[in-house]
Amino acid sequence: MDINTAGELVDLGRTLSRWKFNWDNIWSDTITRMNVAQIAGAWS
User: For the whole model, what pTM was predicted?
Assistant: First the structure.
């Protein structure tokens, strides 16, 4: 694995952790929930 891929995986992990801890707020806000969906869709 190269350094760029490793960095992307670290960023992904951090983002997922932030989402997990703020999920109640994310889920209750339609705009934020749509932003999370767009980001997750781009990753997939």
Answer: 0.80
**Number of neighbours of residue 32 by Cβ within 10 angstroms:** 14
pLDDT tens by residue, 2-40? 999 999 999 999 999 999 999 999 999 999 999 999 999
Distances (CA, A) of 44 to 10, 14, 28, 29: 16, 17, 23, 23
What whole-number distance in Å separates Cα of residue 13 and Cα of residue 8? 9
Separation between Cα atoms, residue 20 and residue 26, nearest integer Å: 9
